[in-house]
Amino acid sequence: MNGYAGHVGRVLPDPPDPIRLREDQLRLGLWMFLATVTMLFAAFTSAYVVRRSGSDWHHIALPSILWVNTFVLMASSVAVEMANRFGLRRRWPATAFSFGAALAFGIAFLGGQVIAWRQMVAMGVYLPSNPHSSFFYMLTGAHAVHIVAALIVLLWGLAMTREGSRNPRAWAAQMDLCRTFWHYLGGVWIFLFALVSLY
Amino acid sequence: MSEQHGFVRRYVFSTDHKTIGIQYILTGLLMALAGGLLATLIRLQLGWPDHQWLFLSRLLPKGMPSGVMTPEFYLAVVTMHGTIMVFFFISYVLVSGFGNYLVPLQVGARDMAFPFLNMLSYWIAFLAAGVMLASFFVEGGAAAAGWTAYPPLSAVSSAVPGSQMGQTIWILSMALFIASFTMSGLNIVATVFSVRAPGMWMMRLPLTVWSYFIASILGLLAFPPLTAAAVMLLLDRHFGTSFFLPSGMVIGNTHLTNTGGSPLLWQHLFWFLGHPEVYVLILPALGVACDIIPAFTRKPVFGYRMSVWCLMAVGCLSMIVWGHHMFVSGMSPFTGEYFSLVTLTITVPMTIFGVNMLASLWGAKLQLRVPMMFSLGVLALFGSGGFGGLFLGNATADMQLHDTYFVVGHFHMMIGGVTLLATFGAIYFWFPKMFGRMMNETLGKLHFWTTFLPFFTIFFMQHFLGLQGAPRRYYAFTAYDYLQKTRGQNLIISIAAMILVSSQCVFAINFVWSLFKGRVAEANPWGATTLEWTVPSPPPHGNFGNMPVVERWAYEYGVQTVDGDFAVQTVPSQIAPVSA
Amino acid sequence: MPSPDSHAHPRFARHATLLALMFAATGIGGVVYGARAWMPELASRHGAGIDSMLTYLLVSVGGLFLVSYLALAYFIWRGGRRTAIGPRFASRRTERALSIALGVGMAIIAEGGVLAIGMPVWAEYFDAAPPADAIVIDVTAQQFMWNVRYPGPDGVFGRTEPRLIDDTTNPIGMDRTDPAGKDDIITLNEITVPFGRAVRIRLHSKDVIHSFFLPNFRVKQDAVPGMTPEVVFFPTKTGHFEIACAELCGLAHYRMRGFFNVVPPADFDTWLHKQQESQ
User: Fold this and answer.
1) CATH H superfamily, domain C135-278
2) Whether residues B26 and B154 fall in one domain
3) Interface test with B, best of A20, A39, A53 (most B CBs within 10 A)
4) Is the pLDDT of residue B535 over 80?
């Protein structure tokens, strides 16, 4: 088609540092996604607070394995941090090992959550049993869905670690995304755990 | 067709924001056709409540056996009309469609920040639309609890036929829609933040981009609570929980076992989304109109900076006013007064914005081309719709007007009319850029006159139906003595609606005809200043040959350059003085 | 040439006149159409306040509507005739002054209306303690009827229990063992009240959300299952009025009709007596 016939402005080459731009975009995208996650759990929390004032609320005893799960998830976050440290020192085998440990802990957390659900079921407490149990199953379920998504991201990070030695800067940026997402979901879990057990 | 594979990659599973934008627009227009046909059915029923439409009984043997609509089909039609128009027409065409098409071009980017996510977003949206339409064909018919889906009506399958499978499918389709809209919103925000061309400072962005930017942020923050509410509704419907269902309910002589839930909780969560959502729809409409107007007044928009601040203020305020949908819901009356005062605060930025649009016509050398006529229509409907808001935001007045046709008239003026006319204005304005051909001017003018006048008549009159106390979502106004005198008005409204719907054929003909036979468009047929007009029509893959460098704001009209009485954003300051 | 016409085209001027006429006619026509007594006949005390709120809004908004449509029409008419644009910019001061004037003006019209006219009505309606001699009526909404209950001569409602509900024999779940309930009077879709006393209605819903709407009394309150909102109002006219449901409640929502009769006190006593005998 016919081009523009008017003034031609100044000409610059494409952005000089596309990797840097990509990092910024991904970080921005991740934080915006986390903002939507925050709003989701904020909505669940406000529903919890409203529903808590209902006359039929019974506080149910939560399985103690949740404490173990919490520590497993925290251990996983620590492992991710260690992977990051090792990576910055270019110790790639240790990085991969720590990353693998973080993933394993993450999967163990999910397994622990399933065990917690099964223990609840064994106690005869089901999803519709009472509002507290409804919220417990729903909140842990919603959190677990996000954990699954984050595990996929971690898996991607682990795969990237194998190429990390080739481009450490790009690797560090990807690592940042993994860390942010994973620690954030760890924080969400601690908040949810406190909510369902204390309030 | 030797390039079958190339065709698929280029036009079907494309990651190019222009293709995706056009896909969104076409999908949305098809959904509008569905929504418009549903509206026709509604008006047939309300205008001629007892008439037997025999030809329709053959077309819709279940919904209209013997030619008269059944109440269950009527409620399903009302619900689906609302859902389709709000979420699958306006959101798709105006927000995701034009948002995708315009934002990268106008900020000077080669594509969206996340092209793959963008493609995923469209295909999920396509799926969501298909799922929603499919819900007409399940047991019990489509969802029938209104587009607001208030439980218990939407939560208990025996409460209304549409609350059987139809409501579940409604929820699933909405979940897909939210996922897709979130991806699309993420993309727009990231694009505006991170891939603006050099020199494109935030305060040089066209108001279109500003409005998409703010609308996307609003959408990102407002939709998750609806997701949460939808999850809870799904659990209430299928897994016996009691989030929204209180104790002691008896429906159809069956005692429900639920205890202690709160139906108002849904309303709070729904309107926490619902109110920002109307701004998600209306801000882009206003932004688009603001950018079309100066191209036909040949002078800069009035009060650009103030308009930007107003958009931001409206965005913030919209998040804290949801309770004005619940004045008579049993919510505490003190809360009602709070929501009333905050809601009416919105009139301040919106008035300033509206008058800035009006003042943009001051001293203009007006050229009444079709996009401009539609933009003036946007301005007119924004005025009349906004004035209706003064009644409804006022808790005292709302006691009489809540859930009457006044509400229907008001929101159709705003998220129906402002957005519809802005959509048409945008299509006439950017059609040459998208397809390289102009649309027919004469047919376009005919389309404007036969759209604006019936539209205004219909929804202006509905305000007064509301003042007479006619409740919305009534299958007929025949059962009440005090509503007998609304029969004549309903007849006029229905006739106007038929004119409105049939006049859209003019648009359809114009659209298809121009696609193949329209006059070939130049790169900048309107003499406009934003970056998309500096590239050929249609723009090539990657949009810009060389990355553009932005030297000025988007409204440099009324200065002399070799192009004419305007300077596109890339014209350096040596050639024409820079205003901002 | 991509550049637009440099002088006004007579075609534009003609269209501009036509469009300006259309917007002017819409503005004037809208006000003429709207300036009528649309509201249903008023029959309650607080309703007068709501009506003055609505009248205030109709007048002020009608004025704004007319002015803005005429301004739009004028700008279009004038703009279509210009051969060159006026000044490109207003000064920053003009812009700021216009914004402030508009903001303050709109705030006064909108918020001022709420504060000066709306708040007192709202307070009267919600905050005033119900008069001691108010007649108390229990209304239980269900798909698609209004169950009405009077406390009877003892002035006390009998206990109800949702689990006792049976749509044919015991629609609101009266506890037959409660002596206070023995003299309760139950009617269907019909509320009768004596003229001269306040009415206090306790709303319940058995199933979905309904909305108790008395168009003539400017009363509208959702009946939400699990909640018992109350409405108090003072009828100022005798006569027979209609009750409508204003919240989508299912298939027969559009004909969930009830009757609200305001009768002289003597007639009320007779009516109540007759109802009691037929229980």
Assistant:
1) Cupredoxins -  blue copper proteins (2.60.40.420)
2) yes
3) A39
4) yes
Look-up of token digits 């004596």 = C194
CB distance B331 to B264 below 8 Å: yes
Q: Are the CB atoms for B361 and C75 separated by under 8 Å?
A: yes
Quote the radius of gyration of chain A (alpha carbons, Å): 22
Do residues B469 and C38 touch, judged by C-beta distance below 8 A? no
- For residue B523, list chain A residues with Cβ-Cβ distance below 8 A: 1-5
Structural domain range at position B555: 519-580
Contact state of B261 with A138 under an 8 Å Cβ cutoff? no
Domain ranges of chain C: 10-126, 135-278
pLDDT, tens digit (0-9, with 9 covering 90-100), for A54-79:
888 989 999 999 999 999 999 999 99
- Rounded CA gap, A66 and A136, in Å? 12
Distances (CA, A) of A27 to A171, A176, B464, C200: 13, 8, 51, 59
φ, ψ (nearest 5 deg) of residue B16 = -75, 125
**CATH code assigned at B200:** 1.20.210.10
Chain C residues within 8 A of B247 when measuring between CB atoms:
162, 226
Contacts of A8 in chain B (CB under 8 A): 570
C-alpha dist (Å) from residue B417 to A40, A101, B381, B411 = 31, 57, 6, 8
Question: Within this chain, do residues B342 and B251 fall inside the same structural domain, yes or no?
Answer: no
Residue B12 lies in a domain: yes
The Cβ of residue B67 has, within 10 Å, a number of other Cβ atoms equal to 14
Residue B504 has pLDDT above 90, yes or no: yes
Mean pLDDT to the nearest integer, A160-172: 81
Q: Are B505 and B529 in contact (CB under 8 A)?
A: no
Residue B297 lies inside a defined structural domain of this protein: no
The reply to whether residue A35 touches residue B220, judged by beta carbons under 8 angstroms, is yes
Q: How many domains does chain B have?
A: 3
Task: Flag whether the pTM goes above 0.90.
Answer: yes
Give residue C1's pLDDT: 37
Residue A22 pLDDT: 79
Asked if residues B151 and B245 have their Cβ atoms less than 8 Å apart, the reply is yes
Q: How far is CA C168 from CA B328, C164, C165, C172, C257, in A?
A: 31, 11, 9, 10, 19
The Cβ of residue C67 has, within 10 Å, a number of other Cβ atoms equal to: 12
CA distance B114 to B7: 22
The answer on B527 and B409 residing in a single domain is no
pLDDT in tens, A172-183: 888 999 999 999
Q: How confident is the model at residue A11 (pLDDT cuts 50, 70, 90)?
A: low
Q: Which of B500, B516, B532 is the last residue of a domain?
A: B516
Paired tokens of A123: 């106690």
Q: What is the Cα–Cα distance from C149 to C157, expressed in whole angstroms?
A: 8
Cβ atoms within 10 A of the Cβ of C1, count? 9
Q: Note every long-range contact of C268-276, with CB atoms under 8 Å and residues 24 or more positions apart, other chains counting.
A: C268/C192, C268/C193, C268/C194, C268/C195, C269/C194, C271/C192, C272/C150, C272/C185, C272/C192, C275/C150, C275/C185, C275/C187, C276/C152, C276/C183, C276/C185
Cβ pair B247:C226 closer than 8 A: yes
Residue B523's closest chain A neighbor by CA?
A4
User: Are the Cβ atoms of B153 and C249 closer than 8 angstroms?
Assistant: yes
Structural domains of chain A sorted by starting position, each given as residue range(s) with its CATH number in brackets: 18-48+64-198 (1.20.120.80)
Residue B3 pLDDT level (bands cut at 50, 70, 90): very low
- Whose CA is closest to B148, among B215, B91, B90, B87? B87
How far apart, in Å, are the Cα atoms of A39 and each of B42, B146, B273, C123? 36, 25, 11, 35
> In this structure, are B51 and B128 located in the same domain?
yes
What is the tens place of the pLDDT at every residue in B56-86?
999 998 899 989 999 999 999 999 999 999 9
Mark out the alpha helices in chain C (DSSP H runs): 10-34, 45-79, 92-113, 119-126, 265-278
Q: Is B308 helix (H, G, I), strand (E, B) or coil?
A: helix
Give yes or no: residues B36 and B183 share one domain.
yes
